[in-house]
What we know:
By secondary structure, the chain is an alpha/beta fold. The chain has a single domain, classed as Rossmann fold (3-Layer(aba) Sandwich), CATH 3.40.50. Helix content is 34%, strand content 27%. The protein contains five helices and seven strands; from the N terminus they run βαβαββαβααββ. A seven-stranded mixed β-sheet has the order 3-2-1-4-5-7-6, covered by helices on one side. Helix 2 links the parallel strand 2 and strand 3. The protein binds S-adenosylmethionine. S-adenosylmethionine (SAM) binds next to loops. The site of S-adenosylmethionine (SAM) has 15 residues, from loops.
Amino acid sequence: MLIIGEGDGRFLSKLVNRFPGIKVDCIEGSSRMIAQARRRLPDEADVNFLHVNALDWKYPVKKYDAIITCFFLDCFKERTLREWMPKIASSLGDNGEWLVTEFRELNGGVRGLVSYVLIKIMYCFFRRITNLEASSLPDWPAIFRANGLSQSEVFENESSMINFTIWRWGKCSQNS
Ligand SMILES: C[S@@+](CC[C@H](N)C(=O)[O-])C[C@H]1O[C@@H](n2cnc3c(N)ncnc32)[C@H](O)[C@@H]1O
């Protein structure tokens, strides 16, 4: 499994505790985050941390059964994702799955307006305190589709600004 932009290891530690024996490559650009993530892991965890820029790394071909990105794609502009996506997608095995957790804008009405404003505030805040590239949510699903991936499952509820989706190669019949 490959995790990109893991952060401080909260997700990773739950994953390795839930699935002992799982092998994980974990790309993270911040050494501070890697140090925090290491501290959360049990000694026996088989995790290979890669302190690299995910946009430049030379991805191995069709190596991974699963790729996981949580709140990573929304850090980048669409132009960056369009260039990066073919490299990373090539490392997903033929039967592999890409699991994505991301923010989303809600559709229509007061909810839609509130989610639009909250996301604007969030980007303003994070652009002030980090060197975040993006200033709005990129249309990453369109870029996934353009690279031959299809959404196979979606977990969301209509009032939540976060959703979780699973993507596979080819055409899928979507479950929700
Ligand atoms: C918004 S945080 C998400 C962290 C975590 N996945 C979560 O859900 O809380 C994005 C993470 O990606 C890392 N990151 C951002 N750009 C990166 C890059 N180009 N290469 C590697 N890691 C990067 C950051 O250091 C940060 O830990």
